[in-house]
TrEMBL record:
Coiled coil: none
Superkingdom of this protein's organism: Bacteria
Protein name: Glyoxalase
Organism taxonomic ancestry: Bacteria, Bacillati, Actinomycetota, Actinomycetes, Micromonosporales
Annotated Pfam families: Glyoxalase
Amino acid sequence: MTPELDLIGMVSTDLARTVAFYRRLGIDIPPDAEREPHVEVRLPNGLRLAWDDVATIRSFDPDWTPPVGGARTALAFRCADPAEVDRWYAELTAAGGHGHRPPWDAVWGQRYAVVHDPDGNAVDLFAPLPPAES
């Protein structure tokens, strides 16, 4: 059997802020989950997304240290249309998310933007651009 991607796990330095950020993006996270050291949800497509606080990670990996430099992973969220990319970018940055790349029309045919979550992970927002008129 080939291994199957089942869970994306991230480390959070402040689970309450992290949970609030992803709830704002529409992830259905149970009430009071931010009070737990491990938060895990199953997304509509079956993939699981999880966050652990630093203490939980260090409980089995005592030498764990946070990465330095830029984000090493990105979660990409497809939006309904280009205007939604702009709207979500504005909403997330107004709520305290770090706007890394404001919305732009990418050469690969998408409206694209990048916001960082509370721990500096890249959250990409994208939507297909309408076909160019000839």
